[in-house]
């Protein structure tokens, strides 16, 4: 799924390894715990201060990671919707609350 290039002792991480699969893309809003605007993240700022050869930043969720999280979601769906009938088969925002740290890769995990 993704390809890194080994050039003169350094691995190159092109931005294409971060492409989100189409089935994981949808509109969402990140807020603080009270519903206010997304707070500033000092940790995200630290990650973005270093750029890897090829243009990616450390700590980003790769396409492979997104697909792994999507597969985990499928397993959770089978368990909590199909097997236990704990949640409705159709998505209801009132039944789901996703909480994450304010780091992009963690928010993307919730999306996947």
Helix content: 25-40%
| Straight-line distance between termini | 16 Å
Strand order of the largest sheet: 1-2
Beta-strand content: 5-15%
Label the overall shape.
flat
Low-confidence stretches: none
Query: Based on helices, strands and strand pairing, what is the structural class?
Result: mainly alpha
Helix tally equals 3
Query: Could you tell me the number of beta strands?
Result: 2
Please state the CA-atom Rg, rounded to the nearest Å.
Answer: 17 Å
Please trace the helix and strand order, writing H or E for each element: EEHHH
Largest sheet properties: 2 strands, antiparallel
Mean pLDDT across all residues, rounded? 84
Describe the structure in your own words.
With 112 residues, the chain is mainly α. It is built from three helices and two strands, in the order ββααα. It has a two-stranded antiparallel ribbon.
